[in-house]
Amino acid sequence: MTITAAIVDDEAQSRENLHDLLQRRHPGIQVLGMGHDVPSGIALVRELRPALLFLDIEMGEMTGFDLLKALTAPRPHVIFTTAHEGYAVKAIRFNALDYLLKPIVPTELDDAVNKAMTGSGRTAAPDNIPALLGSVVSERQMALPVTDGLVVVQMDEMLYCKSDDNYTEVYMRTEKKPYVISRPLSEFDAFLQHQGFVRIHQSYLINRKHIKRYIKGEGGEVIMANDAHLPVSRRQKAALMEALERI
Length: 247
Fold this sequence. Notes:
The structure is a single chain. By secondary structure, this protein is of the alpha/beta class. The protein has two domains: 3-134, Response regulator (Rossmann fold, 3-Layer(aba) Sandwich), CATH 3.40.50; 138-245, CATH 2.40.50.1020. It is built from eight helices and 17 strands. The strands form five sheets. A five-stranded parallel sheet has the order 2-1-3-6-7, sandwiched between helices. Strand 11 and strand 12 form a beta hairpin. The chain starts with a strand and ends with a helix.
């Protein structure tokens, strides 16, 4: 089985290293071409239509997301590459997609490629790309994948998130009903932990800006801006106290 591919990365050494790894370890992948920045990458993908794209995230003043925004269907499957564990990587993780940290570990490349070739992986399939792009609107906005599309919300307007098995209920300051999102609370926690949110319980992640009151107890409870009373577990009490000191 042969899969066509392209590599877009602004570092020549990174492009060559990845190309060499693919040639040695995955002869079934045919690299059609390589781009050195976003404009050349756009032209490359439009002309050659590869099935798989290895895409660097940060390329000078532009990003791999700028490249994806410029593409129309049919888009390739994407495996992201990056040297930085930054905000964009959190968005990629939130959308359950594959990425490779540079310098690329050969076995991690093997895993990502094998998933792409079998269709079992978490590469950015064309249908997933709009959700991903929405997630990186800005560092203070978040795109929530709902039944009929995406809802872009301001993180500052989020009151709290409540676990419901493999789903999460997102309560907003301006909405009467929560958004029900098909993501576990752990993924929201990983995405929002540096955005002013704190885990207070196995089932609750709250925005510290919208805490009205803390009531003492074994773990205690918080009263949120919408008057919801939420329990605080004993093991999370210290984290909450630390978060309250930073308000």
